[in-house]
Amino acid sequence: MADDPLVIAGREFGSRLVLGTGGAANMSVLERALLASGTELTTVAIRRMDTGERTGVLDLLARHGIEPLPNTAGCRSAAEAVLTAQLAREALGTSWVKLEVVADDRTLLPDPIELLDAAEQLVDDGFTVLAYTNDDPVLARKLADAGCAAVMPLGSPIGTGLGIGNPHNIEMIVAEAPVPVILDAGIGTASEAALAMELGCDGVLLASAVTRADDPPRMAEAMRLGVAAGRHARLSGRIPKRFWAQASSPDPD
Amino acid sequence: MTVFVNGERRELPEGATLAGLLEQWGVPPSGVAVAVDGAVVTRASWAATTLSDGVAVEVLTAVQGG
After folding, report:
1. Where are the alpha helices (DSSP H) in A136-214?
2. pLDDT band at A18 (very low <50, low <70, confident <90, very high)
3. Domain membership flag for residue B51
4. Which CATH number fits domain A6-236: 3.30.930.10, 3.20.20.70, 3.90.1170.40, 1.10.10.10?
5. Is the CB of B48 inside 8 Å of chain A's CB atoms?
6. How confident is the model over A139-155, as pLDDT tens digits?
7. Is it the case that residue B29 has pLDDT exceeding 80?
8. Stretch A114-140: mean pLDDT
9. Which of A16, A89, A98, A224 is flagged as catalytic?
């Protein structure tokens, strides 16, 4: 899809699949999965460092020209998320951030109040904010109005693999969003990634579905193909659904 | 004086700088961010940042996630 790039904040990506790096058993598996996925943008988390040791994930991404997208995973308040984004900017030299402010550990659902507050503060501070959000069209609109560069509604809660629980909401978000919509969280298998694209999303972000699969590189390939298939289908103009059959062969003579 | 680095106690001489502490700690040349008492201190300011008793220094980097 080289002629159909994903454009976020003026920057073009040939791949519409954003991969997360969390959950991989080891660096070798992660590396093969990243390459099989064709991703050009990949999330990393910001955590305390052990004495004098780099974790190697940055070196891995740099080696393959994959852009790291720091997230604010684990943050529960706007203040925590803003500080984490500022630390990520200092550590990685990027002003891009996947903003994630969750309400509790059990659901890992975004806290809408803290999320919007953090988004406003980070946009004011010059960040390019990609906001992980609920599948709520109103909140998505407010995040876009606040200046977020992309809105990333969940299909279902992080790590559940339950797919897209409310496809109609995702379609409403797509219909109104002035910025790219990236389906983030809940994808379990390739058909769900394809569905996200068929619903009109501009991209898909997933991690667990690949990194926790029995064969992560192969699932990464499946996701690459699923996203591409869904995108082609979206742009092709699907047939309307009909109640009764319509023959596709000529009538018998 | 006592400072806390990623939650661990460390004894430092009076007037110790952030740059000195991090050098001793073995911080790599890139991919790292530091906060002192919850505020980011950019790498360019490490040498000029004098630590005081009881401060919390956080040293962070990118790990797999998300």
Report:
1. 137-145, 167-176, 190-198, 208-211
2. very high
3. yes
4. 3.20.20.70
5. no
6. 999 999 999 999 999 99
7. no
8. 98
9. A98
Which among B32, B38, B66 has the least Cβ separation from residue A49? Answer: B32
Report the number of distinct structural domains present in chain B. 1
Judged by CB atoms closer than 8 Å, whether chains meet at A21 and B64 is answered as yes
CA angle B11, B13, B14 (to 5 degrees): 120
Alpha carbon of B53 to those of B11, B17, B25, B37, B65: distances in Å?
A: 9, 12, 18, 12, 34
Domain harbouring B27, CATH code: 3.10.20.30
Choose among B27, B40, B63: nearest Cβ to A86: B40
Q: Do B31 and A88 touch (CB under 8 A)?
A: no
Q: Is B66 part of a structural domain of the chain?
A: no
Domain boundaries, chain A: 6-236
> To the nearest whole angstrom, how far is the Cα of A251 from the nearest Cα of chain B?
55
- Say if residue A52's pLDDT is above 60: no
pLDDT band at A1 (very low <50, low <70, confident <90, very high): very low
ipTM of the complex: 0.87
Query: Domain of B48?
Result: 2-61
Pair B41, A89: CB distance under 8 Å: no
Contact between A19 and A206 under an 8 Å Cβ cutoff? The reply is: yes
